[in-house]
Amino acid sequence: MPTGTSVHVTALDGIVNVNSLFTLAVFVGLAWNPNDPSNTLIKDQACAAGPSKAEDLVAFHVYSFSSFLFSSLIALGLKQAIRISKSPTFHPYEFIARTHKSFLRVGMLVSGVGSFCGCGFLMMALVNVVQIKLGTLACGTSSDSFAAVIPLVILVPIALLIYASIILYAFSR
Q1: Based on the number of CB atoms within 10 Å of its own CB, is 61 exposed (0-12), middle (13-18) or buried (19 or more)?
Q2: d(Cα 117, Cα 96) in Å, to the nearest integer?
Q3: pTM of the predicted model, to two decimals?
Q4: Which ranges does the record mark as transmembrane (predicted)?
Q5: Which of 74, 57, 71, 88 is nearest to 20 (CA)?
Q6: b/e string for 101-134 if b means 16 or more Cβ within 10 A?
């Protein structure tokens, strides 16, 4: 049966791995040019997105990247603290490197919040991609944008609520 510390290290590994995948998605999103010069996908040219949507797209990608990086660095720092405290050469007066249960819990909570925020910002970036490619949401429910955005804004928050519930459950243990 795994000890509490090995479970924590495994959970921190999971956070770092997922953040790495999402960070890759952010970089691909930033490198990709979503503009369609001929606007062939937008049925009504009055619904075409302006430059502010492209600015928002880049901003949300940067916010997402920052959140995932923050979360990963906290998780990696916690893993190092656990490894140092379990080392046979650990000096008992090295307070910062000692793994206290409350320090570990708060660190995991902060790392989870960083991942949570990163997912939210990534979702907002995807909403802006849809508006740039298919037309703005301001054009009404007849727009193809709504058909693309509705599953996104329903499924991602549900997944984030499940994720937050699990993080809070782990925090309370």
Answers
A1: buried
A2: 27
A3: 0.80
A4: 12-32, 60-82, 103-126, 146-171
A5: 71
A6: eeebeebbeebbbbbbbbbbbbbbbbbbbbbbbb
Q: Measured in Å, how far apart are the chain's first and last C-alpha atoms?
A: 17
Measured CA to CA, the distance from residue 85 to residue 101 in angstroms comes to 12
Q: Are 131 and 145 in contact (CB under 8 A)?
A: yes
Assigned token pair, 65: 């990247």
> Virtual CA dihedral for 67, 56, 162, 172, nearest 10 degrees?
30
Share of the chain residues as helix, strand and coil, in percent rounded to the nearest 5: 75, 0, 25
DSSP string, 72-90: HHHHHHHHHHHHHHHSTT-
The answer to whether the Cα torsion of 56, 62, 64, 66 is positive or negative is: negative
Mean pLDDT of the chain: 80
Local structure of 140: helix, strand or coil = coil
Pair 152, 131: CB distance under 8 Å: no
The 10s digit of each residue's pLDDT in 145-161 is: 888 899 999 999 999 89
Residues ≥6 apart with Cβ < 8 Å to 22:
64, 68, 115, 118, 119, 122
